[in-house]
């Protein structure tokens, strides 16, 4: 397909938002210590336990963002070519996701146990290589618990995204265009029904329990793409109003234990959070009256293109960091975590993801363009 025939879509603020999402996940996995005196400190309990005890908010933002972008690209492809090419969609997603994913699977099952044994520890992997190879890690985790290998522990969310990619384009092929809006409502409804009646403590690992994130992100893309009045409304909102989702995101980080305590709120938790996250996406991408755009922060935005590698490889970086510091005896004080472990882990993560993107992933990304009907149309 000739490049000039491809439709162009470019959202300059998404890369920076991707990096922020990764950073929330990274912080939840950082500050690793077994020292009881450090764990007892007020700062550790505030930073590690209260603010960044888990990376679910970062993962949720990833899901909403994926639903938004994939839906917008599918709608653009439908508009420009008259149809959605499902086969090519699957090929593009495979070329983007599979190479690094399967590297991490091989590392987790083959290399990690050897390294663990070499440092005098006993490997105890409970994860299934078969389920990991089939992108069913989230169900594997429900059945067997968290993997022993840290690099395998983050792949459950990649598996959910792959499950989402499997069904999403089919819905837009099977359902008439005039009924596209029903897709998002139906998926959100099904997800809420599941969360209501299958409340077992694992609802945030089951695909049905979290697919509302993608649907809400996709719904935002559909409204922005298809509804002119909605888009004009977003563009014209007073910038002070657009601060609401950012304040709510901060509240979710600081007050997550207080905000979502009851059964009913836990059921609706992901829908509530995803609503404010897609608002942020709409504000960043379409508002003409924003106080700021994340693309103005050049360093953060430039790192965004490495986010997939950062997400998959940062457990390896953290493992290397804490091992080096333990061998050096630099893991016994609070300042070791603040000034050594976290910066070193982030630095190694950036180096690994840079090398992965430029010398491994890029080989497949170049092939991906052959199967694209929409290109990243940067500023003309």
Spell out the key features of this protein:
globular; 72% helix; single chain; 2 strands; mainly alpha; two-stranded parallel sheet; 18 helices; 380 residues; 2% strand
Description of the structure:
The chain has a two-stranded parallel ribbon with strand order 1-2. Helix 1 packs parallel to helix 17 and helix 13 crosses helix 15 (263-286). The chain has helices at residues 14-29, 36-39, 42-51, 56-81, 86-118, 129-133, 137-144, 150-153, 155-174, 180-197, 207-226, 228-236, 244-254, 256-259, 263-286, 298-303, 307-328, 334-368, and strands spanning 7-9, 374-376. It has one domain (3-376). The protein is mainly alpha-helical and 380 residues long.
**Major sheet, described briefly?**
2 strands, parallel
Q: Radius of gyration from the CA trace?
A: 21 Å
Structural classification: mainly alpha
Mean pLDDT: 93
Number of helices: 18
In which order are the strands of the major sheet placed?
Answer: 1-2
* Number of structurally distinct domains: 1
Alpha carbon gap, first and last residue: 20 Å
The number of E-state strands comes to 2
TL;DR of this structure?
72% of the residues lie in helices and 2% in strands. It is an all-alpha fold and 380 residues long.
Topology (elements, then pairings):
Layout: E1 7-9, H1 14-29, H2 36-39, H3 42-51, H4 56-81, H5 86-118, H6 129-133, H7 137-144, H8 150-153, H9 155-174, H10 180-197, H11 207-226, H12 228-236, H13 244-254, H14 256-259, H15 263-286, H16 298-303, H17 307-328, H18 334-368, E2 374-376
Parallel strand pairs: 1-2
